[in-house]
Every structure is written in C-alpha cells, then in structure tokens.
C-alpha cells in the first residue's frame, strides 16, 4: 500500500470523489472551495478523476494544476497500467458493465502520458488528523479498491474493511471513502464511515446537484453543489457519450439502477 500522511490539519477540509471527467462540476467545486476559504492543501479527492463525462484530460489537468491530494481509484489504476477496461467491479451483463465500455474508451483515448504518470503516483491511502481524530481516505475498500460499500451494506462488510485498513495504518477514527457515488455518514464497526459522494454525477435522487463533504472540527457534513449541468451534458453529446448518463446530469436518475442494493433503488 502506498500511504501518504498529511499530518495535523488545522481548519476546514473539503472532501470529494469522482470528478468523472465532469469539467464544469470540477470548476464549480474549486470556486466553492475558494468561497469557503479552503485551499488545495486542505482538499482530498477519493479518486476516479475520469469516468462518464466528456472532458477527461481537462478535468485531470485542473486537479493536477490545483495540486489536490488524490487517492488512487480503480480508474487511475487501470489507466496508469494501460488496461482496456475501468476495473469498476461491475457484475457482468449489468447496465453499468455494458455502458462502461463507451466512457472508458473515450477516457483512455484522451488522457496523456503525463496524466497516466500522475495517476500512477496517486496514493492508496491518505492519512491526516484533525481535532484529535485520525482520518484515513480510501477509494472503495481496502480489500478491493473497487468494492461497492453502501449505507445499506452489512456490518460485516464495514468491519472487514476497517480491520484491513487498521492492519496497514493502525487505529483510525474516521474512514473517508468514495467509489459508490452515493454519500452517507454512518457510525459502524468502531469508526465513522463517511462517503463524501462524487461531484461528477448526481446521487440518483432526482435532482441535478452533486455532492461533496466539508470536515470541520472533526465532523463531516454532506453538501450540495450546483454547477453548469447543461454545459456538461452538451459536452457529452459533442463527444458521443449519449448512453444515458448525459441525461442523468439533468434528471438526477441513473440509467444503471441495477448496480444498487434494493434498499437504495427508487
């Protein structure tokens, strides 16, 4: 495991996942961070810089130029390795599995050698402390980078991941995770588990706003972010990514509900 320790953090932090090649949402997030007085040294991304949307290269450039700490997601791992699929862990034959071929091929064609080198250097775990608590940021799970962990996942799933994390980095109080795309905060398996959500796609709730989290004095709050969803959709249409996720940017409803546990379906 490639682990980075940011040390003690004074002041608020902004946590987010899944820019998903959504340049407009990433630009809006940086504006929101500046409005809150949070600089890049106090920001952590839980990975998947590229995915469904139309601007993979420009989105990665924006994150790189801002010098934001990024946890390696499965998309970073796969692109850095020159793999031919996203490694998302979708079940064969599901809508997500079928649709991922299109957006991954676009991202794979667009990102440069420079981007892949940056992705290869992203850390598996990022540690920091705030207000007497130790935090560990990961992507999906420790046992499996692409493990989907939901608010509805069993206690056993959380306990397995917390045990695996502690085996690598020792005791932690709070886990910051991403990958699954739907934010939540849950006290489970002896930690606070925070999925900060993603900024590249709305969380299947019928609205266009995306999500991120703000950490203040050791407490996480899930926040909404409005951005130019019309512009992001237009870019997807321009590059031919019209498999359904383009419509999701407006409707807030995923075309891939079959990836969700029953309790989170509409």
Spell out the key features of this protein.
single chain, 266 residues, alpha/beta, Purple Acid Phosphatase, chain A, domain 2, 6-stranded mixed beta sheet, 5-stranded mixed beta sheet, globular, Calcineurin-like_PHP_lpxH
List segments where confidence is low: pLDDT < 50 over at least 5 consecutive residues: none
Shape: globular
Helix content: 25-40%
Q: Rg from C-alpha positions?
A: 17 Å
Mean pLDDT rating: 95
Number of folding domains? 1
CATH class: Alpha Beta
Task: Give, in spatial order, the strands making up the sheet with the most strands.
Answer: 1-5-6-7-9-8
Question: Can you offer a commentary on this structure?
Answer:
The protein is an alpha/beta fold and 266 residues long. It has one domain: Metallo-dependent phosphatases (Purple Acid Phosphatase, chain A, domain 2, 4-Layer Sandwich). 33% of the residues lie in helices and 20% in strands. The chain has a six-stranded mixed β-sheet with strand order 1-5-6-7-9-8, covered by helices on one side. A five-stranded mixed β-sheet has the order 4-3-2-10-11. The longest helix has 16 residues, at 95-110.
């Amino acid at each position: 495991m490639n682990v980075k320790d940011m040390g003690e953090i004074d002041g608020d932090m902004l946590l987010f996942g899944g820019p998903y090649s959504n340049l407009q949402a990433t630009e809006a997030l940086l504006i929101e961070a500046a409005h809150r007085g949070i600089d890049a040294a106090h920001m952590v991304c839980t990975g998947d810089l590229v995915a469904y949307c139309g601007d993979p290269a420009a989105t990665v450039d924006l994150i790189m130029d801002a010098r934001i700490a990024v946890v390696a997601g499965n998309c970073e791992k796969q692109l850095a390795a020159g793999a031919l699929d996203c490694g998302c862990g979708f079940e064969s034959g599901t809508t997500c599995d079928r649709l991922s071929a299109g957006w991954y091929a676009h991202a794979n064609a667009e990102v440069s050698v420079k981007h892949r080198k940056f992705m290869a250097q992203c850390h598996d775990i990022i540690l920091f402390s705030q207000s007497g608590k130790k935090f560990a940021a990961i992507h999906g799970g420790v046992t499996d980078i692409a493990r989907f962990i939901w608010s509805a996942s069993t206690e056993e799933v959380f306990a397995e991941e917390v045990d695996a994390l502690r085996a690598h980095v020792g005791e932690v109080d709070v886990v910051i995770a991403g990958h699954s795309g739907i934010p939540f905060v849950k006290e489970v398996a002896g930690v606070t588990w925070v999925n900060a959500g993603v900024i590249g796609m709305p969380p299947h709730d019928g609205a266009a706003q995306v999500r991120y989290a703000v950490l203040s004095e050791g407490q996480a709050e899930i926040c909404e972010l409005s951005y130019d969803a019309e512009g992001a959709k237009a870019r997807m249409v321009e590059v031919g990514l019209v498999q359904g996720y383009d419509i999701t940017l407006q409707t807030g409803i995923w075309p891939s509900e079959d990836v969700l546990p029953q309790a989170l379906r509409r």
